[in-house]
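Allow me, if you will, to draw on your knowledge of protein folds for a short while. I have a record of one protein: its chain in single-letter code and its fold written as discrete structure tokens. Kindly check, if you would, that the fold set down in the tokens agrees with what the sequence suggests. Thank you for your consideration; the sequence and its tokens are set out here:
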Amino acid sequence: MCEGTDIADDGDPPETPERTLMINKALLFRFESQTDEDTMDTFLEDLATEVSWEKTTRAWFGVRYMRGEFGVYSCFDDEAGREAHLAGQAAGTFFAAEKRLMTGAPVTTKIEILGSKMPKQLEGVTKGLVLRFKAKPGKEAEVAQMMRDCQPLVDKEAGTLAWFANQYGTSHFGTFSVFADNGSRFAHLTGQIPRALGMTGLSLLGGAPEVHMVDVMTGTARQGD
């Protein structure tokens, strides 16, 4: 899975007036570990400390997909913040650990944020949820708008601590959300957004969404200056 060192960027979707003015960009690093989980946990916790000093990184999460497979999701207000993170000390530390801690080069994906829920304080995060799906050809704009329309629904979910609507290139979409416990994650999974996806799936989506329930190992977040 984790092959190649180039950043995966399918082409940025066009900017639209509906876009949230704040958090607009994200990065996903995904990789397989060749070390024990305690060592990887410590590595991610140390990275979170380094990232906490970055003024333009709004949020950063180290997650475990399954045994031996990990990811790092981070978000920013703009492209300048994302590039500053990629050029910074934390990213340098991360990529320098490839041969020591990873089975191969991490896959890095640039993401556009269509909407987000980001509280003033983000504490007690232990669980995450990753959804990913593809729009049918010609339905990309409608799927993007559907994702924007989901934000008011998420804002009402007290147990959903943070939520990000993602667009990967032109036709792939998804969400990343975090919770304090399994109960809150289950409530989100059985809430209005999955029902909306189910109702529109046949007309807009090119298949059933991928669902990944992940553990959030560590993270850091800050308000915009």
Residues 116 and 164 are 4 Å apart (CA to CA). The beta strands are 7-8, 25-32, 57-66, 69-76, 107-117, 127-134, 160-168, 172-179, 210-221. The mean pLDDT is 87. The first helix runs from residue 37 to 51.
